[in-house]
Design brief:
Order of helices and strands: HHHHEEHHHHHHHHH
Number of strands: 2
Radius of gyration: 29 Å
Largest sheet: 2 strands, antiparallel
Shape: elongated
Oligomer: single chain
Helix content: 55-70%
Strand order of the largest sheet: 1-2
């Protein structure tokens, strides 16, 4: 008997008899294996990294919280911002529908005392939801009102537009400048490394919050200057992280090979060293945003961020700090918003650390 049919069947992965080399129970042959490799989806570093992050439960919870806050901020309502010319409020007159989707039922800067439908409104009125049994004669405010007769829910919702982006901006400044300082110090070394690191040591010698207050007051009491101050205070942390990574990576064999092939120092730093130094920077940056949100809220609490009529969670707590026992909702609700934001960033940072650190990633 010729063995040619069996050989063909084995290569094709299968039309031989049951139990034979090409039978249904036999493993696929070389042709089938090659076909599966050719049709398989190519590996992607970004896709694999994202899948690893999404396998971390803490990262999933953090992403959910932050996504919720982003949606709340985007759908809050018409623009309310502060500029060099003062407060710019795009809300229409009271009683006029602003149009579109708006989660805030009222203008967050508008005192409601004396407005139609707000009869009997009291300072620091507690939350009132008619569907939960609040008397119909009482104006409905689901978070209550503050000491200036403004709707607290609207102010908390609009505070998301201020506090969440503030953390990103402040840490973005720190990462941008700190990365450049750390990369240059770590790669070049020598006297320049010593000079830059001693400057970072001087900044680290000051209490960070106190230094942020000094910088903000010196530059001018505005929210933008407060963001810049928090960013400057954070520079040494990211400079040291990047420097440590660069010092380790620049001794690797692939860097030596690139140098032997004639690649310039700038090219090695930008294309070889820095891409491999990003993991600790990303993790620390995500964790740092939560701390920046707290610091900015603290600066707003002590009144160095400018116009207190702009809904910002720290300034909202500052205005009613004496009402913790008489009207706790006006203090606790903005405080809960700060806590939720910081928790979201911390959970996401923990998840990123577990997903990106090869010693912890399973």
């Amino acid at each position: 008997m010729s063995s040619e049919p069996l050989i063909k069947g084995g290569l094709a992965g299968g039309h031989g008899g049951a139990g034979g080399p090409g039978g249904p129970g036999a493993p696929p042959g070389p042709v089938a294996t090659a076909d599966s490799l050719l049709t398989a989806r190519p590996a992607s570093l970004w896709r694999d990294t994202l899948a690893s992050i999404l396998r971390q439960r803490s990262a999933d919870v953090g992403l959910f919280i932050l996504s919720f806050l982003v949606v709340v901020g985007l759908l809050a309502g018409p623009s309310v911002t502060t500029t060099s010319k003062g407060l710019e409020d795009s809300w229409p007159a009271y009683g006029t529908d602003p149009g579109g989707i708006h989660l805030a039922p009222f203008d967050p800067t508008l005192p409601l005392l004396g407005e139609a439908g707000q009869e009997g409104l009291a300072r620091f009125a507690p939350p009132c939801i008619h569907a939960l049994g609040c008397p119909a004669a009482q104006p409905e405010h689901i978070f209550g009102v503050d000491g200036n007769f403004r709707d607290l829910f609207s102010r908390v919702v609009y505070g998301t537009r201020v506090s969440v982006p503030s953390g990103f901006i402040a840490i973005g400044i720190a990462i941008l400048i700190g990365t450049m300082i750390g990369a240059v110090a770590g790669y070049i070394g020598g006297w320049l490394d010593n000079l830059l690191m001693r400057i970072m040591d001087v900044l680290l010698a000051f209490p960070s919050f106190l230094l942020a207050i000094i910088i903000t007051v010196a530059l001018g009491r505005t929210l933008n200057n407060a963001l810049l101050a928090v960013g400057i205070v954070g520079i040494p942390v990211y400079a040291r992280i990047v420097r440590a990574s660069v010092l380790s990576i620049r001794e690797n064999e692939f860097v030596t090979a690139s140098r032997a092939l004639g690649e310039s120092s700038l090219g090695i730093l930008v294309r070889r060293v820095m891409p491999n130094s990003l993991t600790p920077l990303i993790v620390q940056g995500t964790l740092g945003i939560g701390g920046a949100v707290l610091e900015i809220a603290g600066l707003a609490f002590i009144g160095v961020t400018g116009d207190i009529s702009v809904p910002e969670w720290g300034s909202m707590i500052s205005l009613v700090r004496g009402q913790l026992f008489n009207s706790p909702h006006v203090v606790l609700l903005p405080g809960f918003a700060i806590t939720l934001t910081v928790l979201g960033f911390n959970l996401l940072g923990d998840g990123l650390r577990d997903a990106l650190d090869p010693r912890l990633n399973r």
